[in-house]
Design a protein that fits this description.
Distance between the termini: 143 Å
Order of helices and strands: HHHHHHH
Number of strands: 0
Structural class: mainly alpha
Radius of gyration: 53 Å
Length: 194
């Protein structure tokens, strides 16, 4: 089986060489390709396939440099290869285009009424921006009011309570001293009387 594949590759190369030889003869009228190809064939089938392919590519490249028609044909062949590579995309694209064609678009009167609403939508957007700015200013004012209330109401009240508590402690100390002094006086009187 492997030998058969090898033989098929060699036969294909022979056919390509023959076609290239004829093409070069038609383009340039020269038998140089004939002589070089006969040299390769006369060396026998031992010559490697890759070497023969390289020789074919070289000959084709030199032909394309000498003939603008061959150069354009090679470019067309490259374009055809790209098109063939993307051939599977064509049915998909066709089905998508057909599905777009089947979409029901709204009537032109509805589209015209939407277009007529555009100036009003712009006005509403501007009003929304103004309201958003006012809301930001109100939030900032509210934050300042809460901060002021906290400073004056909560913190000042806390300081007032702390001051009152300090005064109460001083009063309690004074009352305890007075009570302690009275108790000692009473105790001394009782000791003295007893």
């Amino acid at each position: 089986m492997n030998r058969q594949i090898h033989q098929t590759a060699l036969d294909t190369l022979d056919d390509l060489q023959y076609r290239l030889q004829r093409l070069e003869y038609f383009v340039s009228g020269s038998d140089d390709a004939q002589n070089s190809l006969e040299n390769v064939v006369s060396r026998g089938r031992e010559h490697s396939i890759t070497a023969r392919l390289a020789k074919l590519e070289h000959t084709l490249h030199s032909l394309s440099e000498r003939s603008p028609v061959i150069h354009e044909l090679l470019q067309l062949d490259e374009i055809a290869a790209v098109v063939a590579a993307h051939a599977t995309l064509y049915p998909t694209t066709v089905s998508r285009l057909i599905s777009i064609r089947d979409i029901n678009f709204p009537s032109s009167s509805l589209s015209a009424s939407l277009i007529a609403l555009q100036p009003r939508l712009v006005e509403l957007e501007n009003l929304q921006n103004v309201q958003a700015k006012e809301m930001a200013e109100l939030r900032a004012g509210s934050a300042k009011a809460v901060q002021r209330w906290y400073e004056l109401g909560v913190l000042a009240q806390g300081e007032c309570w702390a001051d009152w508590e300090g005064r109460m402690e001083e009063c309690e100390k004074g009352v305890r001293r007075l009570e302690g002094g009275r108790r000692r006086e009473t105790e001394e009187k009782e000791r003295y009387l007893s």
